Structure formats: structure tokens, C-alpha cells
Amino acid sequence: MADGASHRILETWPAWPRLSQALAARSSLWAVCRCGREAAIDPGPWVGQGLGRQATAHLETRLRCLCGARRARLEIRGLSEAPQGGAGGIYVFR
Predict the structure, then answer these.
(1) Smallest Cα–Cα separation from 94: which of 28, 38, 46?
(2) Predicted TM-score (pTM) above 0.70
(3) Which residues, at least 6 apart from 86, have a Cβ–Cβ distance to it below 8 Å?
(4) Three-class SS state of 64
(5) 31-78 confidence digits (pLDDT tens)
(6) Which of 3, 42, 72, 92 has its CA at 20 to 30 Å from residue 48's CA atom?
(7) CB-based burial, 21-39: b 16+ in 10 Å, e otherwise
């Protein structure tokens, strides 16, 4: 723009990953809570509900942590990025 402002298309901004990307080979879906817990999440049930094109950020409120948090950040990671030890304690709520 002439005034220096940027122009963004709403459909592409912000560019959150889609749930279907977690189904790619050598990828996994992980939930990370503010308390430090991490857990692998199976995207299968959500994809089965037709949510494959949904942005992962829109599904974060469907997670519950043992610490009482009603939300956890979702990340798509490669298999080499998975934690080596103690993971768990975050569950899909609905």
C-alpha cells in the first residue's frame, strides 16, 4: 500500500497449520500445556468428525490437562521432535 500498511487476505492470515497436516508421514500431533505437560494426541477422531481442514488453533479448547487447564497449544511435530520421556496428562475433551 502507498501508506506503508500491509494488506493481508483473511483466508490466509494467520497461517495456522491444518489438522490434516498431522496425518502426513513422519508427523505427529502434540498438545503442550502451560504447566509443562506434553502429550501425543490422536487426530483420527477429529478427522472422522470432518474437522481435517480445521486450523489446529481452533481445536485447542477441546483439550484438558491434569493441572486443570481447559486449553492446550497444539503443535505438529516430526517424529524426531517427540520428547524422549514423561509425556501424557492431556486429553481430548470433546
Answers:
(1) 46
(2) yes
(3) none
(4) strand
(5) 999 999 999 999 999 999 999 999 999 999 999 999 999 999 999 988
(6) 72
(7) ebeeeeebbbbbbeeebbb
